[in-house]
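Hi support team,

I've been running sequence recovery on a batch of backbones for a student project. Most finish fine, but this one hangs at about 90% for roughly twenty minutes before it completes. I'm not sure whether the input is malformed or the queue is just slow. I've pasted the structure tokens below so you can try to reproduce it. Let me know if you need the job ID as well.

Thanks,
M.K.
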């Protein structure tokens, strides 16, 4: 058996890879520092405040200066903030502030790093799953995953759902404006359901999720948003949620997580009105693996290894599509379930939106 040591080495390539790995080290450690900066309000305190010293930021946030000083140095080394040596002050540029401090921004990122932190905590479970081949259910993960996922997806849904995705679904928007019955399956903490309810006050909405903790938080969020009279949240699985005659059924970033997506698709068809629409929002992916070997595909494959594939393998059938299933494979599943018309209605760099009709 040959070993790496016995093979001829290109020293330049080795150096290039090691330096790339060093960058990975910094990025991996910085994930925790981003979570800390978000939790303690450090980014928010710097946003729009101009140059600040570590002492000024610590006083403004009620934190210990020595920790803040080291945190600022790390953020400056990574290009997250800038440092002026002459004044000894740090600045959060407006572009970074949009991504790190503004929760209404479509590019707000800290939620994803909460997901990363949860994945690191759950590494022992996934390592054991590699050995056993068994799944790890969504509900079995660190609780930080649930809030982090909602915070990560929320800006994207706010930016695109009402303004782009629903208008792309033919006559669906008109139905929602006059009053339609809508099911949001795999609703998680209810962000997508609530956004639709706020935009279409004449329609009624019910969100379904098998995770009781998420449903509890979704109900609280609906009450806080003032739409509790038109939105219900119920504990149910995608293959047996109750109700008939839905004019719109929505699946947001969850079909690929299901053990039996074809079984879920058949149930959707049975629950829809004859002229109803099924909107399936999925992670953006090309159909061939080699076409997904890019920064976005890398994030999705990593998340899929830690979250999506284990979730599917924990359920019946366990098809394990993964987060990069692609439109071609998804369409085959939908058509096998009885949907005759499937098309890509919209897309973003991070999502594809499929429309399926009977």
């Amino acid at each position: 058996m040959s070993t790496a040591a016995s093979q001829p080495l290109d020293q330049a390539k080795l150096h290039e890879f090691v330096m790339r790995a060093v960058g990975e080290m910094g990025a991996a450690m910085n994930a925790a520092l981003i979570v800390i900066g978000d939790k303690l309000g450090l980014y928010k305190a710097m946003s729009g405040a101009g140059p600040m010293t570590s002492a000024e930021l610590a006083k403004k946030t009620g934190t210990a200066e020595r920790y803040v000083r080291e945190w600022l140095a790390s953020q400056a080394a990574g290009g997250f903030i800038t440092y002026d040596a002459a004044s000894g002050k740090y600045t959060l540029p407006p572009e970074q502030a949009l991504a790190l401090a503004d929760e209404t921004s479509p590019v707000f990122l800290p939620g994803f790093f909460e997901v990363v932190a949860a994945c690191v905590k759950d590494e022992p479970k996934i390592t054991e799953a590699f050995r056993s081949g068994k799944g790890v259910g969504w509900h079995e993960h660190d609780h930080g995953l649930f809030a982090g996922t909602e915070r990560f997806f929320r800006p994207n849904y706010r930016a695109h759902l009402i303004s782009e995705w629903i208008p792309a679904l033919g006559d669906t928007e008109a139905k929602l404006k006059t009053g339609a019955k809508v099911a949001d399956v795999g609703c998680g903490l209810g962000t997508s359901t609530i956004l639709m309810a706020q935009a279409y006050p004449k329609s009624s909405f019910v969100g379904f999720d098998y995770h009781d903790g998420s449903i509890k938080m979704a109900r609280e969020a609906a009450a806080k948003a003032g739409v509790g009279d038109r939105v219900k949240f119920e504990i149910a699985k995608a293959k047996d949620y109750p109700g008939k005659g839905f004019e719109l059924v929505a699946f947001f970033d969850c079909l690929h997580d299901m053990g039996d997506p074809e079984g879920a698709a058949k149930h959707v068809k049975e629950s829809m009105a004859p002229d109803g629409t099924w909107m399936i929002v999925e992670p953006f992916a090309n159909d061939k693996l080699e076409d997904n070997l890019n920064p976005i595909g890398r994030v999705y494959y990593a998340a899929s290894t830690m979250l999506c594939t284990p979730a599917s393998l924990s359920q019946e059938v366990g098809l394990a599509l993964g987060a990069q299933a692609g439109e071609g494979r998804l369409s085959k599943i939908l058509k096998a379930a009885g949907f005759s018309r499937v098309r890509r209605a919209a897309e973003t760099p991070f999502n594809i939106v499929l429309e399926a009709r009977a």
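--
Follow-up from support: It reproduced on our side and the slowdown came from queue contention, not your input. Residues 37 and 43 are 6 Å apart (CA to CA). No action needed from you.
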